[in-house]
Amino acid sequence: MGGLRILITNNTLGNRAGSELYVRDLGIALLRRGHTPIAYSTSLGEVARDLRAATIPVIDDLDLLATPPDIIHGHHHLDTMTALLRFPGVPAVYFCHGWIPWEEAPPRFPRILRYVAVDHTCRDRLVFEHAIPENRVRVLLNFVDLERFKPRAPLPIRPRLAVVFSNQANEYTHPGPVRQACARFGITVDVIGLSAGNACARPEEVLGNYDIVFAKARAALEALAVGAAVVLCDETGAGPMVTTDELDRLRPLNFGIRTLRNPLDADVLAAEIARYDPADAAEVSRRIRASAGLDTAVDEIISLYQEVISEYASASEDNADDEQHAASRYLRWLTPDLKRVHTLEARANQAVSERDQAVAERDGMKDELAKMRVEHDQLSAEHAELRRQLAEQHQVRDQFEQTIAERDSISAELAGDNAKLNETSDECARLQGQLTERERDLLAFEARLKRECEQHEQQLANKEAVIQGLSSTLASKEAQLEGITSSLGWRLLNRYGPIKHRFLLPIYRRIRSVL
DSSP string spanning 271-312? Predict the structure, then answer.
């Protein structure tokens, strides 16, 4: 069998997420194998541009496809059923990628010969909720492009950097508990994802920078292929760290919703971080790279295409009526949801009508509002003036408070000075008492000294009187002496020295002593 024309449907080909990236990677791999993949969605965007850049045709209208495909690879029931009804006689396979989304519900149609679940959880949805016969269900686990997601260097002994890798991650979901848990180990945490405003077009270039990755499903698989230690985690809950002991259990569950059984709690996440083991993470990565590569998955998918095409070609019966009944049943199944949408639209229209009425009322109030705005502007001006005055008052109050503070400081200093002054006054009083006592002593001393002076003056006057008397006597005696020395007798005596010395000198000395 030569190259196949494969029409791959998807709900959107917009953001880089889940099934969109599955379509991109599968389409590029099929093109490399010599097949012709065609991507169809009514909502195109970034992934559609990636596909066209890889020279894969992308359409949002099936009428643009002039040649029917050999097989329809269906994702999401609306888009799959649209393709089946547009191209009668073309067999299909339907892939279910999720447990919860309404779009992932499988349509029942005769030309869908195989249903593929990407994990055991989706298989149970197909078999136990939508009555798909088990012999028509195949489990083909998700893959990773090993050429893009290359092994990183060995992990460090202690983790230093972690990342929350999820399009649902934002500050209202699970990064908070992750950061709290990592903080206990001194681990820095980044967030990569659409909701965080940090979408990454080439995660293969950044995942190798992180020691621990908090992720689920495809994101977890890519991180494991790189060689990071992975703790399963998303907005719905927390799971275990992926270790060699649990890999065989977690891989068939696609590291998805069934593994996220624990609450988003920092203690729970910290317990998983504590299981960090670089050697074990390296062994997990080796096993993933040995079993989850893109080439192996594409081999299985191509084999499934060929199996379905051969089986459909060998069928001889005409099943047009069955297809009409299936289409009718599908529409019957779809109708309640469409009616609910119609009800919501009616409510929305009523809300729009009420809004229009409110707008009319609002328009009628515009003049009044304009007047009120004028008044408001006036009041605003008055308010501004009052605020200015208030600001001035606040400034005056601040100055007053500053003055009060300075006064209080001065009062405190004055109180200290008063205390010192009181001490000084007491000392002055004591010194004044001593001075008064000394003044009394001085007055007494002055009185005594005055009396003594008066006595001395009296004695001096007496002595002066005596001296005057003696002076008169001496003058008389000197006159007598002069008479004697001028007399003949003195001359005679003067001639005789011994007599003079014996008789006259003692007399002279006695006179001088009296004087």
Answer: HHHTT--HHHHHHHHHHHHHH-BHHHHHHHHHHHHHHHHHHH
